[in-house]
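Question (not urgent): is this output format expected?
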Amino acid sequence: MKKRLCAIFFVLLFAVISVCPVFAEDGLQRLVDAADLLSDSEEGELSSLLDEISERQQTDIVVVTVDSLEGLSAAQYADDFFDHNGYGFGEGKDGILFLISMEERDWYITTSGYGITAVTDAGREYMSEQFVDDLSEGAYAAAFTTFASLCDDFITQADLGEPYDIGNLPQEPFGFVTHLAVSAAIGFVIALIVTGIMKGQLKTVQSQSKADDYVKSGSMKLTKQNDLFLYKHVERREKPKESDRSAGGSKTHTSSSGSTHGGGGGKF
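Got this back:
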């Protein structure tokens, strides 16, 4: 009887453990899928990826999905979630949190500590261009994986002393349109070379420096000539104003708990 009770106990214990959310070794849950956008297998893979990057880079990379912002702005919700749940490595509370709210289809990235340095405003805009289409199409696992991988890349780049920013963003892939444009340019240059060679082989016709060289001598006599000014073209360009120039870096704000955060977001 005791053996049967023990067996039942261990079966129940295993069942409880198997349905519990995946936590990092330090007790933090870096994936909180409250909106239930991911399958169980997707949750497991993404949690492992977030934990691995976070612990290796010593910067918390967090993904949170919710059904509603509960009356808060996306920035307020993301900042408070980060602050109140103990995220952030070290004294600087280094971390990057990606929030998705399904109520109004909001996304927001909040940064803290070294995350503010690694993910500049221009860098965050670049990030969004890589994952927003996946969010719009409902490919949430792909979008979150892209976000995590980009965070890894951005932190590594910041460690080199030159964070991704204006004038220093990752190079875009060499796509089909670019390939087509380059091919057309190469074809144009080759055509110019060929026609130049063909032109050089024409020995019977030589260009003349003056128009009257093409007139038979004595066949035309000019009695009057003068120069007539027809028109002029002036092109004006507005001088760029100082306020139009982007300074780069990250703009910051203070959360309700008094912590400093960077970040920004949009719709999907």
